[in-house]
Fold this protein.
Amino acid sequence: MQLVDELSMIYTTCIMCYATFSYSKSRQFSIFLGIGLVALAAFITAYYHYLQDPVFHQNAYAILTATVLIRCMFVMELNLRPSIKKKEKEYELHAKSPMTPEEKAASVARDRRDLDILRTMWWMIAYGISIFLGGFLIWTVDNVYCSTLRRWRRDIGLPWGILLEGHGWW
């Protein structure tokens, strides 16, 4: 049963990986990506079933999660950072006449808005990573001290014993 519980984490992260990497890509790329991720999930499932080693699962999950996180940060910066967008604008402006004062004002307002969005998104990333790492810590403590925590849960009883269900909180 533990295997099924842990593999759902891999499958969910593969879905997030698909959503992150297929965004704004061609249909053909998205299909190949989907096939590749299904094959990866099948390989992880088969190999984990063969090994029965939680460290393999933890490493596979960590690599997938880090990949999704790094890609999200890259896409966020690429699409919103004014200095990066400025290079695109310069390229487009070579073919056009200089910006009018109204266009410049609109461009400055968009850049200011994008910086505000970026600031908010970075705070959200920090908050999300903190919650994720906190949950991972609780999960690790639950795995290491499982027998002790089970004994304590039985001693405390319901409803307070629920607070010691580290895997459930994760």
Observations:
- The mean pLDDT is 83.
